[in-house]
Fold this sequence. Notes:
With 102 residues, this protein is mainly β. Helices cover 0% and strands 29% of the residues. InterPro entries: DUF1540.
Amino acid sequence: MATLEMPQVSECSVLGCSYNDHSSCHAAAVTIGGSAAGEAQCATFIPLDVKGGLSKVMTFVGACQRADCQHNDKLECNAASVKVGPGAVDEKHADCLTYLAR
């Protein structure tokens, strides 16, 4: 899958992440992880006071470790776009809100 075919992170509403500037993600790519029984977490989430990422970037899903997601094809996300938001279990962490269990 070429970079242009990777799904873009269309929204991130997690305020405590170093890569989020309150409107969008500034990481070049995110990884979706988490346990099979738990949340589909944004594994790129870093809760620091230091801001990270690039000033101008379109963020993509670089990898998806959730083989149990309907959008996962050989560990690549095939959703049209992905939304990241506060976790259902812990709002201080970031979850992939586009995740759909098979």
